[in-house]
Write the structure tokens for this entry.
Amino acid sequence: MPRQLSELQAYYAARAAEYDRIYLKPERQADLRAIKRWLPPKFAGARVIEIACGTGYWTQFIAPVAAQLLALDAAAETLAIAKTRVPAGKVDFALGDAYALPPHIGPFDAAFAGFWFSHVPKARRSEFLLGLAACLEPGARVVLLDNRYVEGSSTPLSAQDAEGNSYQTRRLDDGSTHEVLKNFPSEAELQELVAGLGERAAFTAWEYYWAFEYALATH
């Protein structure tokens, strides 16, 4: 496992119990209410794969409308929390590497990745999207949801590497500090990434969050 990925996995394993506090920020509540209305209809009746489901915060809103939902995460600690959020048997949870999805799974006709794409190094963005496409049917809907950088609400950026990836220094309850890769792609970057891979790409922006959706190309 690449060092960058193993460090991120260790961070989220350590953060599992306190992860959902991020959704309690008062200034973000209007956005979150809007997204909770906007997101589920995207997956109505679909066979969905969710990448990096974390504690299942978004899984719980997709599960009631999806025909099938496979939720993967690299950390057993966050998966344990996710499993408590949905009725037994409604979702299949599995440990999985977002860069090495098992070839036998799928095909799915929809995919969701919430607050994962910002942790993908710029050099691996195409690799991730192509790997995801391999387990989807032509025309499948893909939805990415993530953070916008908002001064005063977002954790300040602490570093940038030679490839243009940005980082945040985060402190956990146990006193440990972690340097976490956190990128904030523009709409233009996202559109460029899916050129030739996806169709009908659309970008939606709220004050604190963004969503990018496209249909996997059928040709």
Remarks:
- The mean pLDDT is 91.
- The first strand starts at residue 47 and ends at 51.
